[in-house]
Every structure is written in C-alpha cells, then in structure tokens.
Design a protein that fits this description.
This protein is α+β, with helices and mostly antiparallel strands. It has three domains: 174 residues, no CATH class; 141 residues, 2-Layer Sandwich (Alpha-Beta Plaits), CATH 3.30.70.2750; 374 residues, no CATH class. Helices cover 59% and strands 7% of the residues. The chain is built from 24 helices and eleven strands. Strands 1, 2, 9, 10 and 11 form a five-stranded antiparallel beta sheet that branches. A four-stranded antiparallel beta sheet has the order 4-7-3-8, sandwiched between helices. A hairpin with a 5-residue loop joins β9 and β10. α10 crosses α11 and α12 crosses α23. The longest helix is centred in the middle third of the chain and has 57 residues. The chain is flat and about 130 Å long. The chain starts with 8 loop residues before the first strand and ends in a 7-residue tail after the last helix.
Length: 836
C-alpha cells in the first residue's frame, strides 16, 4: 500500500566524471528522485568550484527580470506555451549571455533615446504653449495711462517725476510651473520682490507627460514683468527654487511668430521620430515576450544544476566528482538509467558509479502522492512529518476526515453548494492552474479542492441521515408515523404524543428506510431527540476512531522490532480504552435494542430504561442503586454489576503495567548488555580490534538514534506517556462531543435563517410579495453562503483537523521525521520568475 508507509530510502554514493557531471545532474533534475547532501559544509558559498557559473546565471536572471519589467510596463502579453525545454548545455550559456546582453543594451539605448526625445518634446510643447499664451498677454491693448500707472507702481515717485519711463524698458521672463505650486510661487514672488513685479498666468489645458516617470502632469504658463537687474536675479532664483522652467520669449510679435512656426515644425519631426522609436521598442519587446518564459526556465535549470554541483566533492585527481544522495530503493534502476542517458549525452566514455552506503543516519520521509492524495498528505505533514517508515495516517484520513466533517456540517443543501464549487475547481483545474492566481485564499482552496469535494459529498450523505436540507426535512419514502386522532381529540389538546405502539396505531411498525423520520422535523421534542441521538453517535465514532489509532500502533511496533511493546504498551492501552469507553458504547446499543414502546414486559418499556450517563458514573465510583423503580429493573442484563466491577479493576490494574512495563524491560536489556560486555572483556580481545561498547541497546530506525539511554530518562518518559494516555482517554472521548455540539449549532443557525429571513418573504400575499421575495431570497442566500457554508465550514474543518491531530494521531504517530526534498526542476519552476 503506497500510502500506508513511506518509501524505503537508501543513501548512495555517486561518482561522476567531471565532463559528464552536468548532463547527469540535469537528467536527475528532470527525474526528481534524488536528494543531495552537502559534502562541503565548511566551505563558504564564494569559495566553491562553480561559484562563477552561478554568478553568471544570476546576472542572466537580472537581465531577464529587466526585460520582463519592460514587457509588463507596455502591457504586452507574455506567451506561455507550457513547454518545458531541456537544460541547455554549458557551452550554450555563452550564446544566452550574448543574446541577453544584446537585448538589454539595445533596450537601454532605446529607452535612453526615447527619454531624451520625450524630454525635448516636453520642452518644445511647453515653449509652444508659452508663445501662444504670452502672445495673448502682449496683444492686450492698454492705454498709455494704464502703462504709466503700472510704471509708477514699479518705480519710486522721485524717479518718476524726473523721467518718463516707456513700457519697453520693462524686462520679463516666461516659463511653466506645476499647477499645484503656482499659489505658493505667487506669494513668494510678492513677498520677496515687495510687490514690484507683475505676474500673469494661464493654465495649460492638456496634460503633459513627464519623460522620467511617464506620469501625466498639469502645468501653467506664467510671465513676470519687472525692472532692473536686481529684480531679474531675484525672480530667476525664485523660479529655480520652485523648479519652474524658463524659456526665451522674443519681445516682438514677428519674432514670436517665427519662433512658433519653427517650434511646430520641430514638434512634428519629433513626433515622427518618437513614433519610430516606440515602434522599434515595441517590436523588440514583442519578440522577447515570445521567448522569455523559456529563457527563464533554461537559466533557472542551469543555475540549479551548478548550485547542486557545488554540493559535490572533488577527488584528489580533480577529474571526478563525488556526491551523496538519498534515493528511494524502488527507483534505483530508474536513476541508473537516467545517469546512463546523461553520460551518453555528454559523450563521456566513463560510466557513472552508484553505490549504496550503510549508515545509521535516519533517512528522510518520502510519501508518493498524486493530485488527489496530496491535499490529505499536507494535512498530516502540517502536524509533523512522519518518522521514517512509521504508519502514515494520510490514507485513513482520506475517509475519516470528510466523514467527521460531515457529522458537524450535516446539511444536504449546504453540502451540495460545497460540492458544486469543488467540482467546478476539479473539472476546470487545468485552465485554473494555468492562470497562476496569486491570492493566498484561492491558492489554499484550489490546493484542497479534492478535500472540499469529499467533504461536500459526505455532508450530503450526513444531511440525508439527519434529514436536514437547508434546515427543512424531506419526506421521500413516507413517514413511519401517522396521526390517528379524531377531530374532537385535536380540539381539546394543544399537542399530542405519538407513541410508537402497535395498539394505538400511531406507528406503522416499519421504520423510515434512510435517516431520521421526517415527522421529527415537526415535533416539539425534536431538539431533545436529535441531541440524544447525535451525542451518542459522537461518542461511538470517537471511541472507534481512537481505538483504530491504538490498533495502528501494532504495525509500528512490529515493523521496528519492538515486539515487547505490544505486551507492555498496546495491550494495556486497548484494554483501558475498551473496558471503559468501549463498554460505554455497548451500553448504548443495548439500550437502543432492548427497550421499546409497546413491549409486553413492563421492564423493557422506555420508562424503565436506565440513564447511560448515571450507569457509567456509578460503574466508575462503584455506586449502584439497590431499590428499583416500580415495575422496573435497575440493570440492563444479569451479572452487570459483577462484570462492571471486573472491568474497572482490570482497567486500573493495566495502568501500572503501562507505567512500569517498558522501563523494567529496558533495565533487563541493559543488564544483559553489561554482562555480555564483561564476559567479552574477560575473554580478551585482539590488539587493534574494534570493541563495541555495550550497555546501550541498539536503537531502531523509528527512534532515529534519539532513544534515551538512561533508565531515569526512560522512566520519566514513560510516566509522562502513561499520564497523558490515561487522562487523554477521558478528555479525548469528551472532545468528540464537538461533533454533536457543532452539528446542533449548524442546524439551529440554519433554522434561524429560515424562520427570520426566508419565511418572512414567503408570507406576503399581494403582488409586491414577489418583488420583496426576490430581495429577501438574495439576502438569505448571501447569509447562507457567508455564514453557514464559509464560516461554519471553516469552523467544522478546524475542529475536524484537531480531532485528527490530537485525538487520533497521538495514539500511534510520532511525527518526528524530516521531509524528502529531491532535486527537481518541477519544484524549482513552481517559483514565479522574479520572486526570489
């Protein structure tokens, strides 16, 4: 059974000729079945043999990321054909480097030219707007009086009285500034020049492109009139401080008109050149977009190969590379064939050598999975990777996980919604996987699509068992009950008891074929009945689940050669569990089958059925009722008291066996080892002979060499284990009551949504009832999906996960291993380019 236990692994030593090493490692990367060990742990990454090749790959990746950024900036689609090109030969690295260098240089040159052209275009566009706006300023006809008044405002009165200043004596500067800086610019001019300047401004309607960032910016044209070199210097400094751009503006209209014509001509020429530059850049990027995915794959494969080769060791001749790797035993032949293919591709005549090595090191854990079982294996590994070759609970989790989930999420309608969503992901898994959606929630849901599918299917099954479909019962086969009351009896009674007695005719004596009878959905005592039913089956399935976990421990004990642990650990554990909680489950079945309505013997009627809880408490405390109820019997079967006392005594007596059994056996083994070592020393040993130090029993593969070697350590460890198991058996059994509690909460929430939301919409009789029902149904559907399916589903999922991790796996699963991480191109390619 592939999932029952992890693959058998072996440590191998690999000898490769230097010329063939690259091709052989490339073949192993395609295969993905070898985990290499670092044979140079004390050598820094900068001192390894192939560090220069890794750096070259890093540089190629940098260039590819630059190309990818430029392609995405232009919104050019990147072609992804799904191809998986082979790892290039080492000599092809030079061609790839030359191609990437040429592309990068060409693209950088085009970008620099384009930026320079855009900057020139921006300057000409701003100058064009300045010439247009300033022409408007100069074309305003002002009277001589206005000119003189403006002159007086700029020149002191004593000067004005001595000479008449003409308008052409005023100097001016023109430029553009960002629109948001204009108010502060105007205030600074007024304050710095003390009101001795005249500012006119006009907004540029069209947005201008920033040549550096590519953003659209809005600017305004301004012209400042002043008189004197001192003010001119001050104005220019303020313009420089606000990063305003100044442009030359002729004083005469003819010169301005001539300059405007020249500017328009240059702008047209620049537009032509810019268009050609952008077309060339676009062609380069489109050509690169067709191959960039394959280029990324090739470079990453080359880099991973050289990174792996850096883990190898060189022999003294510098002609052979030595590697150590963990590989599955069943794939030895496949790996040898791939090594032979690599040797043939490299043209080497020396075949590679693959030798198995003997080691006491614990191998990694490798569980083969497919797209269906991978999700369940991830749930188990999240708790802890299985110790090498111990029983893997993933195969049993495939059934138990969705089943326990469905017991808490038991609604056929909600299960159908979950099933449809999961089925859509399963059917569309290839196109959905190709989209590579990076949302964390989506990645988790998509990875667990088969888990969700099984959870939904099992929930539909549990929903029909509970007869619960969107909180409503369905009557498929016809109820086993019938109302056999007259109209007069119904008038005088608010409610009536339907007793399943053949004499009164309320029961057809044929049970409902599948699940709960739909009559219970209308009964006033529906909740007490379903509570008792769900509580009991929760305990039953919990005890079965934990007992199965204890039984699985036998396979671990037998495989790792710990046969005595079956006597001192497994048998006491199973006796303690069965004699207490297994017996509790048997009492439930006895009560279900022995007591029934309409029994001829009064002691077998439901009123005489003893309470299971009271019976179990009395069994543990050795307290029994001696006075029975009238016409009833205190006990379910003859000899019940004697049997219960024997079971309690036996359950208590196995606890010391569980506590002291393993330490005593350990002590006996230690004494035998010491005696053997003493006898061996008396007989003498040959000079130079290796003597194995006795006194420490050989550890098995399960413990990985971590078994405590001191008796006190073993005793403390076993005491903790015993206390944990004994107390855990009680607490874990009670923990399975969450199956009943969450099922009750889910059904009640579903019923509240029906009564408080959808039922209100169905009560309207007029024409507007249909309109209101449309919106009310939308609200009910939204609340159902968000609360009952998503939130309640997540809650049930987490509780199911806890039941498996704590209550089930703790009975047999150590989870102290480490994962097998092979050198695989497939795993390396899963990382998105540029995410390193």
């Amino acid at each position: 059974m592939p999932l029952f236990r992890s693959e058998e692994m072996t440590l191998c030593q690999l000898f490769l000729q230097s010329e063939a090493a690259y091709a052989c490692v490339a073949e192993l990367g395609e295969l993905g079945l070898a985990q290499f060990r670092d044979l140079n742990p004390d050598v820094s990454a900068f001192q390894r043999k192939f560090v220069n090749e890794v750096r070259r790959c890093d540089e190629m990746e940098r260039k590819l990321r630059y190309l990818e950024k430029e392609i995405k900036r232009d919104d050019i689609p990147i072609l992804d054909t799904g191809e998986n090109p082979e790892a290039p030969q080492p000599r092809e690295m030079i061609d790839l480097e030359a191609a990437f260098e040429k592309l990068e240089n060409e693209l950088r040159e085009v970008n620099q030219n384009s930026e320079a052209l855009k900057k020139n275009f921006l300057e000409l566009s701003e100058l064009k707007h300045i010439l247009r706006k300033t022409q408007t300023f100069f074309d305003e006809r002002e009277s001589l009086m206005e000119t003189e008044s403006m002159t007086r405002a700029l020149i002191p009165e004593d000067v004005t009285s001595r000479q008449v200043v003409a308008p052409h004596n005023l100097g001016f500067v023109a430029g553009v500034i960002l629109r948001e800086r204009l108010p502060a610019f105007e205030r600074m001019l007024w304050r710095a020049c003390r009101g001795n300047v005249f500012l006119r401004q006009a907004e540029i309607d069209a947005a201008l492109e920033d040549p550096v960032t590519g953003d659209q910016v809005y600017k305004s044209v301004f012209i400042i009139f002043f008189q004197g070199d001192q003010l001119k210097t001050r104005v220019k400094k303020i313009c420089e401080g606000f990063r305003a751009t100044l442009y030359p503006c002729p004083e005469t209209p003819a010169e301005r008109r001539e300059m405007a014509i020249g500017v328009m001509t240059r702008i047209e020429d620049l537009n032509t050149v810019l268009g050609q530059t952008q077309d060339h850049r676009h062609r380069v990027l489109v050509a690169a977009a067709k191959n960039i995915k394959n280029w990324f794959v090739k470079v990453r494969k080359i880099k991973s190969i050289y990174h792996t080769l850096n883990l190898f060791n060189l022999d003294v001749t510098q002609k052979c590379l030595i590697a150590e790797c963990w590989i599955p035993v069943t794939d030895m032949e496949t790996i040898q064939m791939s090594l032979r293919r690599g040797t043939e591709r490299s043209g080497s005549s020396v075949p590679p050598i693959l030798n198995r090595m003997m080691t006491r090191e614990v191998p990694p854990t490798y569980n083969r999975t497919n797209k269906f079982t991978a999700g369940f294996q991830n749930l188990v590994d999240a708790y802890g990777v299985a110790t090498y070759r111990e029983v893997n609970p993933a195969s049993f989790t495939i059934v138990s996980f969705p089943f326990l989930f469905s017991m808490m999420f038991g609604d056929a309608g909600h299960g159908l919604l979950m099933t449809l969503f999961a089925l859509w992901m399963v059917i569309k898994e290839k196109p959905l996987a190709a989209k590579k959606i990076q949302s964390e929630i989506w990645v988790i849901c998509f990875a667990g699509r088969y888990i969700m599918l099984l959870m939904g299917v099992f929930s539909i099954y549990a929903g029909f068992i509970y007869n619960d479909v969107f909180s409503k019962g369905v009557n498929i086969f016809g109820s086993g009950y019938k109302v056999n009351l007259t109209d007069e009896e119904l008038k005088h009674h608010h409610s009536a008891m339907l007793v399943p007695d053949e004499a009164n005719g309320h029961y057809r004596q044929t049970p409902y074929p599948f699940g709960v009878d739909p009559i219970w959905m209308m009964a006033e005592n529906k909740i007490p009945y379903l509570n008792a039913y769900k509580m009991k089956i929760s305990i039953i399935f919990g005890v079965v689940h934990m007992g199965f976990g204890v039984i699985l421990g036998i396979w671990n004990h037998r495989y790792f050669g710990r046969s005595m642990n079956i006597l001192v650990e497994f048998i006491p554990q199973i006796i303690f569990l069965v004699f207490l909680f297994g017996y509790l489950c048997i009492l439930m079945f006895i009560k279900w089958t022995k007591y029934y309505a309409g029994a001829e013997d009064q002691t077998l009627t439901p009123g005489c059925a003893p309470s299971i809880l009271i019976t179990f408490i009395g069994m543990v405390l050795f307290k029994y009722d001696t006075v029975p109820l009238d016409g009833c019997d205190n006990y379910m079967y003859p000899g019940q008291v004697t049997l219960q006392k024997v079971m309690i005594i036996v359950a208590v007596l196995v606890v010391p066996i569980l506590l002291f059994g393993k330490p005593i056996l350990f002590k006996i083994e230690m004494n035998k080892s010491k005696n053997h070592a003493a006898l061996h020393n008396q007989n003498g040993t040959a000079e130079g002979e290796d003597v194995e130090v006795a006194g420490v029993p050989q550890t098995d593969g399960h413990e990985g060499g971590d078994e405590p070697h001191e008796f006190s350590d073993v005793m403390i460890h076993q005491a903790i284990h015993t206390i944990e198991y004994v107390l855990g058996s009680v607490s874990h059994t009670a923990s399975y009551l969450r199956l009943w509690a969450l099922s009750l909460a889910h059904s009640q929430l579903s019923e509240v949504l029906w009564l408080m939301v959808l039922r209100k919409g169905l009560m309207f009789q007029d024409w507007y009832g249909g309109v209101l029902l449309y919106f009310i149904f939308a609200a009910w559907a939204a609340l159902t999906v968000s609360i009952l399916v998503l939130m309640e589903g997540l809650s049930a999922f987490l509780h199911t996960l806890r039941l498996h991790w704590v209550e089930f796996q703790s009975k047999f699963y150590a989870g102290a291993g480490y994962l097998f991480v092979p050198f695989s191109f497939e795993n390396i390619m899963e990382v998105q380019p540029g995410e390193e």
